[in-house]
Amino acid sequence: MENDTDENLVAQVAAGDRRSFRCLMERHMPLAIRVAQRVTGNTADADDIAQEAFLRVWTRAGSFDPARARFTTWLYRIVTNLAIDQRRRPLHADIDAAAEVADGGPGPLSQIEAREQRRAVDAAIASLPARQRAAVVLFHMEGLSGREAAAVLELSEKAFESLLIRGRAAVKAACRARDETVGGARDAR
């Protein structure tokens, strides 16, 4: 079973095989959580979304068509749609926003600068419209090809590329504006 393709496992899940379902979950749950967390920016929501996605895999396995997409593309689509829907709901405070513990890596100043830059990029991505955010996450953070990400978002490759370009431009502009604001505040001291 561990050597079966995802597509074969989904076919077995459609027939009610729980072992095949468990195998798919073991293979792809980390991916589902990671994508959901990156799209929503919330760890607790990401776990719930990943579980809901696999519930949908269980209940809708019969509708999966391996001729149209790979299993992972289908799963990305389910997770991304659930995450976008979640982002549209009212926000709650995120416990992950609490103070982070530093590791033994680079010095404190380098860590602060890198962390601030990462926060700026994360904030810029979080402020994108949901579909642009999903495009940036799937392409840049998850490493999907343009074709795969377009399939996940149910777009043509050209439409996906346009969405990705707008998302990148908005992230760059937000980071540039933040750098100018931070630089101006430093100069005022």
From TrEMBL:
Signal found in the keyword field: no
InterPro entries the record matches: RNA_pol_sigma-70-like (IPR039425), RNA_pol_sigma-70_dom (IPR014284), RNA_pol_sigma70_ECF_CS (IPR000838), RNA_pol_sigma70_r2 (IPR007627), RNA_pol_sigma70_r4_t2 (IPR013249), RNA_pol_sigma_r2 (IPR013325), RNA_pol_sigma_r3/r4-like (IPR013324), WH-like_DNA-bd_sf (IPR036388)
Listed PROSITE patterns: SIGMA70_ECF
Positions of the RNA polymerase sigma factor 70 region 4 type domain: 119-170
PANTHER family documented for this protein: RNA POLYMERASE ECF-TYPE SIGMA FACTO (PTHR43133), RNA POLYMERASE SIGMA FACTOR HI_1459-RELATED (PTHR43133:SF8)
Family of this protein: Belongs to the sigma-70 factor family. ECF subfamily.
Protein name: RNA polymerase sigma factor
Organism: Rhodoplanes tepidamans
